[in-house]
């Protein structure tokens, strides 16, 4: 079974496959062997669904989720298209093998490739399973995002961020704590994970320790420390995670549509366009290009479309959090990371 345990020597959380009766686990960070009763601190999210996992094919692999909530009151038009565009980008621009990309949408004929909570959990476990130095991983999500009250004190604003599988009404959302524990904490040294989250309330959707607060007027940035006061570690086991999200935690995301092309998420569209137009050189250039493009999209008709597709879910978020969401007239893509870095000079690559 899949589980996360803390190494007895370095205390790094490590994702492992444990066979029934296993008496030891080797840490992927310091290589120490943890024995018997030393196997402490199992993950609260170690209930990976049973069943065969896809074979890991490559040092480059990705999980892409496009959730449209078909035939429901939460239906979104562009999310499947978003995921398909991201798949094409990874293959054509970053040389990801198609066989190493798991695509989850409601349009997939294989029931194991639908974006249910069960399948999304399986895919996230698969993404980091057996990862080693030199691997480049991508997690992409397009769909509804929401918030719920946080009761363990590990959120700076008092709210957990969530993403919504296709069956979230019956199975519940996936909370940022679980995403962090599943694909962030297990990463060993030398592994790089990028996340791209196109959803409302997604600024800290991976619960990463540091948020890059951009100053659009001054043209600078500062890394905000979002580490919990409790001291709970939200970083990796030596690897690196960088996440692009479509908006701040208190903001909503918009979709754009045209008579000539299918609907798509504004953030996804800007992310792809920025890279194809040569702005994906440094993280600074990329995030600023995305922000500039989205600011030009925020016209009155876009706000009306946002109200139509997200009004119900935003209302539910208001009930859960007890606060009113920020006006949808602003959407500012955010950058978070497991460790601060020089955004202006660091080269972007997947």
Characterise the protein shown here.
The chain is α/β, with parallel strands linked by helices and 350 residues long. It is 25% helix and 23% strand. Helix 1 runs parallel beside helix 5 and helix 5 packs across helix 6. The longest helix has 22 residues. The two termini are 30 Å apart.
Helix count, per DSSP? 7
The major pleated sheet works out as: 8 strands, mixed
Number of strands: 17
Uncertain segments of ≥5 residues (pLDDT<50)? 12-21, 35-42, 46-51, 301-309, 311-322, 324-328
Global mean pLDDT: 79
Radius of gyration, in angstroms, nearest whole number: 19 Å
- How does the overall form come out from the CA principal axes? globular
The proportion of strand residues reads 15-25%
Helix/strand structural class: alpha/beta
Q: What assembly state would you assign to the polypeptide chains in this entry?
A: single chain
Strand order of the largest sheet: 6-5-7-11-14-17-12-13
DSSP helix fraction: 25-40%
How far apart, in Å, are the first and last alpha carbons?
A: 30 Å
Order of SSEs:
EEEEEHEHEEEHEHEEEEEEHHHE
Family: Belongs to the peptidase C14B family.
GO molecular function: cysteine-type endopeptidase activity
InterPro entries: Caspase-like_dom_sf, Metacaspase, Pept_C14_caspase
Protein name: Metacaspase-1
């Amino acid at each position: 079974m899949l589980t996360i345990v803390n190494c007895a020597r370095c205390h790094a959380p490590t994702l492992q496959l444990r066979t029934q009766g296993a008496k030891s686990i080797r840490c992927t960070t310091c290589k120490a062997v943890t024995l018997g009763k030393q196997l402490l601190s199992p993950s609260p999210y170690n209930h990976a669904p049973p069943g065969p996992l896809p074979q890991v094919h490559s040092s480059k692999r990705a999980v892409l989720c496009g959730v449209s909530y078909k035939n429901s009151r939460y239906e979104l038009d562009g999310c499947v298209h978003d995921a398909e565009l991201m798949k094409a980008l990874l293959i054509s621009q970053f040389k990801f093998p198609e066989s190493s990309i798991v695509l989850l949408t409601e349009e997939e004929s294989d029931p194991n490739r639908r974006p249910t909570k069960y399948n999304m959990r399986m895919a996230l476990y698969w993404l980091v399973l057996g990862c080693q130095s030199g691997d480049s991983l991508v997690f992409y999500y397009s769909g509804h995002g929401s918030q719920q009250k946080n009761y363990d004190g590990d959120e700076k604003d008092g709210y957990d961020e969530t993403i919504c599988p296709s069956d979230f009404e019956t199975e519940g959302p996936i909370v940022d704590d679980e995403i962090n524990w599943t694909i962030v904490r297990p990463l060993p040294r030398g592994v790089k994970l990028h996340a791209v989250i196109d959803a409302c309330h997604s600024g800290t959707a991976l619960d990463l320790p540091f948020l890059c607060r951009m100053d659009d007027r001054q043209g600078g940035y500062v890394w905000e420390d979002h580490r919990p006061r409790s001291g709970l570690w939200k970083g990796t086991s030596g690897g690196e995670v960088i996440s692009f999200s479509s908006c701040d935690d208190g903001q909503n995301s918009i979709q754009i549509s045209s008579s000539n092309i299918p609907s798509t998420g504004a953030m996804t569209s800007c992310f792809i366009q920025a890279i194809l137009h040569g702005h994906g050189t440094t993280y600074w250039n990329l995030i600023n290009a995305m922000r500039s493009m989205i600011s030009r999209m925020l016209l009155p008709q876009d706000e009306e479309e946002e109200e139509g597709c997200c009004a119900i879910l935003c209302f539910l978020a208001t009930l859960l959090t007890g606060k009113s969401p920020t006006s949808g007239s602003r959407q500012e893509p955010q950058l978070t990371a497991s460790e601060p870095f020089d955004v202006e000079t660091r080269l972007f690559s997947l």
